[in-house]
Amino acid sequence: MSRLQVNLPGLQLKNPIIPASGCFGFGEEFAKLYDLSILGGIMIKAATGEERYGNPTPRVAESGMGMLNAIGLQNPGVDGIIAKKLPFLGQFDTEIIANVAGSTPEEYETVTKRISQDPVVKAIELNISCPNVKSGGMQFGTDPRMAAELTKRVKAVSDKPVYVKLSPNVTSIVDMAQAVEQAGADGLTMINTLVGMRIDVRTGQPILANRVGGLSGPAIKPVAVRMIHDVAQAVEIPIIGMGGVMEVDDVLEMIYAGASAVAVGTANFVNPFICQELISALPKRMDELGIEHILDIRGKAYGATLHRA
Amino acid sequence: MIHMLTVVTRRQIAKGATELVCRLPDATVIEPGRFMHLRVGPLLRRPISIANVEGDLITFLFKEIGQGTKELAQLRPGDQIDALGPLGNGFPVQHVAPDARIVLVGGGIGVPPLYYTMRKLVERGISCEAILGFDTADSVFYEDEFRALGPTTVTTVDGTAGVQGFVTAALEPNRFDTLFACGPEPMLRSIQHVPITHKFLSIENRMGCGIGACFACVCPTPDGHYVKTCSDGPVFRAEEVIL
So what's the ipTM on this one? Predict the structure, then answer.
């Protein structure tokens, strides 16, 4: 087995690098730059029941080593994705993970049922943590009972393993993780963005038209590492870690903290070749640090989880 | 796709406006109206329009507005810039009729890409005119450069140079059949409906990736859909977008 190979429920990843949902579209733009088959997998942009046009602009605002976004789940709808996007993605030798969002439990069920039956899709990422939509999204991801109930319903209709994407905007992410694990989640992906706001001092008004948005990028990496570290020790299911990964050591940090694979988000906007570069840089860095297989270091940073909040 | 540019010269050409001439590592064909996504500032790239390309030299002209453009204005000869591009779709210079009557309308920091555009039109033997709008006399730049290419009218809001008022004060629509414009949104909005048959507008938007993947820079269209400024534009037909 290759030293980068990672096998997770439903996913045979040739390496642990996966572009994160919302940061890679449906792969079309990046396919012009490099061969997507080199990727461990691809988390595609969220699918909802109907086409969504998203929020008004401005939708992005930079902040110290991070960015706020409030795109608002713009997507062609599940039928449009199945008809127009999945056939394109199917030509690549990489694992496609479909991100599913909705305003109601019924919408989540409908979308999951439809998209999980497509042979191109290998796993579902249940998006209960989008901070940028008025209904649904994060409201399901901040109450353990609601998250568990939704996970149960989605699991019941899904043809493929379900990974629940956790929000960091909660009092106890460990409670959230345990709740969805007990409800049948096959894995976790974490963390989604942190809710934030920026104000233009010339106008005195928020920069984002949506007023608030989700903070991503290097600024949130320590938060992600801490949360992965705490959750990984409290659950049995695997974690795909994400949050501010920009370089190869960030990947290793997430795996030390307990992640089994790593998603790369905002970095794709700064350097569209970043995933390709990380994949080729990993073996050399592992050699330097004396790491044989990438998962040999998984959870090696475990210790007391002092901050359960 | 990613080029390491080397700064050759930097000079301030008007109040708050900097001209940066850089060397491209390889000869790259760049159509007027496209842009480069420069890695300056804390994290995200900055889309900067292209004011000129001659041989392996590329010129950027920009106003210091935020942290990214401030950093860009402080670069010195020999410094390197990581540039992604050229990106987007430019003005249809190669597709206009040889006898087209073209007016180029630029407002403030929207003026730079029109210089390269006019140069390319003149190279094709197409005669065109320029109307350049600025706030005040001390913010005017590239007036002589434009005049060398064809008839040029400068307008200033306060009347300290050229015609007093906005660009629309100097625009006589019946003399033209094609308009290329770049400038602030209120300016583009005001010329969106002037009676000129073919109107192409270069629009500005806060961008993320620059390649069409992040959906940050969308612009609504009259049919209820949207276009992405970075990859579908930044140049659109006037009737394609709602400003």
Answer: 0.90
Distance from CA of B208 to the nearest CA of A (A): 6
User: What digits encode the pLDDT tens for the residues B64-121?
Assistant: 988 899 999 999 999 999 999 999 999 999 999 999 999 999 999 999 999 999 999 9
Write the burial class of residue B186 (CB in 10 Å: 0-12 exposed, 13-18 middle, 19+ buried). exposed
Whether residues B124 and B36 fall in one domain: no
Residue B225 lies in a domain: no
Instruction: Return the residue in B69, B209, B221 with the most chain A beta carbons within 10 A, the one to mutate for interface testing.
Output: B209
Q: In CATH, what number is assigned to the domain containing residue A140?
A: 3.20.20.70
Pairwise pLDDT comparison (B108 vs A137), residue with the higher score: B108
| Both tokens assigned to B87 | 């990106």
Q: Least CA distance to A59: which residue of chain B?
A: B216
Given phi > 0 = left and psi -120 to 50 = alpha, else beta, which region is A98? beta
Question: In this structure, is residue A106 part of a structural domain?
Answer: yes
CB atoms within 10 A of CB B182: 28
Domain encompassing residue A282: 6-297
The DSSP letter of residue B91 is -
Please indicate, yes or no, if residue B32 is contained in any of the structural domains: yes
**Contact check, Cβ <8 Å, B214/A23:** yes
pLDDT at A309: 47
Catalytic-role residue among A97, A130, A237, A239: A130
Please indicate, yes or no, if residue A308 is contained in any of the structural domains. no
- Provide the residue range defining the domain that includes B51: 2-87
Domain count, chain B: 2
- Cα–Cα distance measured from residue A118 to residue A55, given in angstroms and rounded to the nearest whole number: 29
pLDDT digits (tens, 9 = 90+) for B23-79: 999 877 899 999 999 999 889 999 999 999 999 999 999 999 888 999 999 999 999
B216 within domain boundaries: no
Residues 71-110 of A with CB under 8 A from B: 71, 74
Q: Is the pLDDT assigned to residue A46 strictly greater than 60?
A: yes
